[in-house]
């Protein structure tokens, strides 16, 4: 028959004394402290990411379509505007598509802004392999 004490609950196991070491008391949980530490760490990581993006991130190179004219069987002339960092330059990909949506021509155009200016307006001819229906600016990126 096993030994039971009056102070021990009936469903609690009784271990032989000294055999398994000292049992720890359950610690107090501190969910508020844990949430505060997580919030501080996330805020610091966010600030670090914002600083690095500001320092090393790509500035915006935005190409805007103004018009397309001069459509013939072998070309289209695209007028476009590019927003670059002040005095910067960009390489833009222009393309021409036929009436059924197929690409019939593309060209890369490099444009440069005057010192202190952020916008460049340019006109570029896009040679095509068939009659184009539309000319467009696909994307602009830093020149180089």
TrEMBL record:
Bilayer-crossing regions: 32-53
Pfam family membership, one: DUF4307
Spans annotated as Disordered: 1-23
Organism in which the protein naturally occurs: Micromonospora humi
UniProt entry tagged with the keyword Transmembrane: yes
UniProt keyword annotations, A-Z: Membrane, Transmembrane, Transmembrane helix
The organism's place on the tree of life at top rank: Bacteria
Protein name, as recorded: DUF4307 domain-containing protein
Record-linked InterPro entries: DUF4307 (IPR025443)
């Amino acid at each position: 028959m096993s030994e039971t004490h009056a102070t021990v609950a009936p469903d609690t196991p009784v271990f032989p004394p000294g055999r398994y070491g000292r049992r720890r008391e359950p610690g107090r949980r501190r969910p508020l402290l844990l949430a505060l530490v997580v919030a501080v760490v996330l805020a610091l990581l966010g600030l670090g990411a914002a600083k690095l993006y500001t320092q090393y991130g790509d500035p915006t190179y935005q190409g805007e379509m103004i018009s397309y004219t001069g459509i013939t069987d072998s070309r289209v002339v695209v007028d476009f505007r590019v927003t670059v960092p002040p005095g910067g330059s960009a390489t833009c990909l222009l393309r021409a598509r036929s009436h059924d949506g197929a690409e019939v021509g593309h060209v890369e155009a490099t444009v440069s802004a005057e010192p202190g200016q952020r916008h460049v307006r340019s006109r570029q001819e896009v040679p095509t392999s068939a009659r184009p229906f539309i000319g467009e600016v696909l994307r602009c990126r830093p020149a180089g």
